[in-house]
Amino acid sequence: MSVHVHPTALIEDGVQLGDGTFVWDGVHIRKNAVIGEQCIVGEKTYIAYDVRIGNRVKINAMVYICAAVTIEDAVMISAGTIFTNDRFPRATTGDLRQLRSSDPDEETRQTLVRERATIGAGCTIGNDLSIGRFAMVGMGSLVTKSVPDFHLALGQPARSVGCVCRCGRPLLRFPAEGSFDVAETRCAICGLRYSLRRGVVTELVGPP
Question: What is 4-174's CATH topology?
Fold first, then answer.
C-alpha cells in the first residue's frame, strides 16, 4: 500500500500520513497533524495542526477538525461536521489592539472521539467533552456534553435517547423521563448481548 494525495490537497510540513490513507481534493492538513493507516479524508476537509487521528478513520467531505481534537481508531465522521475548541471565543485580545493568536492557549479545550464512534452529517461538536466507544450522534445534532459508550445522542442540544449495538443498530429507546435498567437485551441483527444499568451499557460475553 501507499499514501494517495490528490494534487489539489495542501499538506503542510511535519504532517504524518499512514500507509493506505487517501486524501482527496481541496483538503488542507496543517503542520504536525498525524493521520493513521487506511484512512479517508474527504474533499475540502480542514484538519488543524497537531490533531491526532487513528487508523481506519473515515472523514467525509467538508469536515472542520480544529486543534486539540483526538480521534481514535475506526471512527466515522460524516459530511459537514464542525469541531470547536474554545468556549469563550473572541477575535481580539482584551485591549482590542490586536487579533488573538490561533495557537492553543489557556482557553483551548480538548475533544476526544473514542474508537468506532459515528458522528452524523451536519453535526457541531462542542469541547471539553468526549464521545464514547461505539456511540452514535444523529445528523444535525449539537453536542454540548459527553456522550457515553454505546449511546445514541440526538437533538440541539443533543441528549441520549437510546443505545446502539457495535453494528450500529438500535438496541433500546430510553424513556422521556427517568431511567430504567435492563438485565439483558439482544441485537436483532447480529445477536450480540448487552445490559443497561444506570445509563451504563455493558457488553455481555459467553453463552446466553
Answer: UDP N-Acetylglucosamine Acyltransferase; domain 1 (2.160.10)
pTM beyond 0.90, yes or no? yes
Cis amide leading into 89 (omega within 30): no
Long-range Cβ pairs for the range 169-173 (8 Å, 24+): 171/201, 172/196
The predicted structure's pLDDT at residue 69: 98
Domain boundaries, the chain: 4-174
Residue 26 to residue 18: CA distance in whole angstroms = 19
Q: CA-to-CA distance for 130 and 113, rounded, in angstroms? A: 6
Contact present, 63 and 80 (Cβ < 8 Å): yes
Q: For the residues 141-152, what does the mean pLDDT come to?
A: 97
Helices (H) and strands (E) in the chain, counts: 0, 26
